[in-house]
Task: structure prediction
Amino acid sequence: MSNILHRHTQASLPTAVRGEGVYLYDSDGKQYLDACGGAAVSCLGHGNQEVIEAIKAQADKMAYAHTAFFTSDVAEELADFLMPRSPGMSKVYFVSGGSEAMEAALKLARQYFVERGETGRRHFIARKQSYHGNTLGALAVGGNEWRREQFKPMLIETHHISPCYAYRDQLTTESEYNYGQRVANELEDKIDELGSDTVIGFIAEPMVGATSGAVAAVPGYFKRVREICDAHGILLILDEVMCGMGRTGTLFACEQESIQPDIVAVAKALGGGYQPIGAMLLSEEIYSVIESGSGFFQHGHTYLSHPMTCAAALAVQTIVERDHLLDNVVDKGSKLLSHLQSLFSEHPYVGDIRGRGLFIGLEFVQDKANKTPFDPSLPLHKIVKQASMAAGLMCYPMSGTIDGRLGHHILFAPPYTIQNQHIDEIGDKITQAIKHSFQQVGVV
Ligand code: PLP
Result:
């Protein structure tokens, strides 16, 4: 009997004991191909000796020094590495994960306007279906209804507009581009409704990850969003916690949208799971307002810029760049996508196969022509997860793809180091898992 409050009290979890390359092993010696990097985390796979040595070396030197008293060489080095590679950002704030990075972003955005004397700005606008973390602020701006529901009375007021989800919402009468402009313009309508002098910023994941299954916006959408933010003087806050740090083939996902945010949050693939680290990056404009104002960002956590986490992230990022792993993300990403398309595009219950880089989603439907989802009471995501684990494959299945309640998908986010044989293995194992799952629910 475990003394841990696990995610589910009835879950019976295998015990992970070892990781090597793209594989994890449990205490029975069973091997799992980690095709989702946990939750798009393990970008270098498992057991990378260089990263482990860097962590050990930092532990030998100094594990911790509080940031109210000291800075550290390793945190400064990581910042020096990231800033010139960022989408025009000026400073970075290191935290312990994605939710903390988003909380910091929300508070910094508000403080920026307060320091400018615009204290009436209090509204955030975000998108339905997005996920920004589980702390109260991050949960409030998140748009996944199921996650928010029971905590609603405790959440700050946030306004949500439609996602950019062409597979579901593009009308047959409009072009892809026009669809993107239409949903982007919802932002302007919402700003007008609230009054632009009351709005702080707009928050979006450049690619929606866990909650929708690797949904990218259509071309032109984010450019229009940037234009609207600029026209109304509000901040664009991008959440690249899941899709950033190389996952989509560029270090920052927004590079592929040719836009610069005012604030961007990253986490997961920053430290690759070797240590818990997230980061909030901010523009020069925001920094200069704080610097010439109070000079003090009224926030902070005990483990800001933790040297061990910075050492791990610096090692991970150095390896990703030195070994040109983003080329492999692009190459193997397009191979994995094609392979999944060849296996499932004719499958009666696979409606959409999508993604960028090694960030790929597969959406299930009951009726392909009408894109009708399965009954939400069917725990298809759990069944697929169980069947995948039985087959020795980790993928990231989820329900509520469409609106937090309807829809099922699986997400693939394997390590950037995967090779062709792993793509074949993912294909074989997921074919087996999907076949067993639909046999089990009795629809084939
Ligand atoms: N933002 C996005 C887009 C995420 O996918 C996640 C986690 O899945 C978070 C924020 C929260 O990150 P964390 O779980 O590290 O707090």
Remarks:
- Residues 39, 97-99, 102, 131-133, 205, 209-210, 239, 241-242, 267 surround pyridoxal-5'-phosphate (CB under 6 Å).
- Residues 420-441 form the longest helix (22 residues).
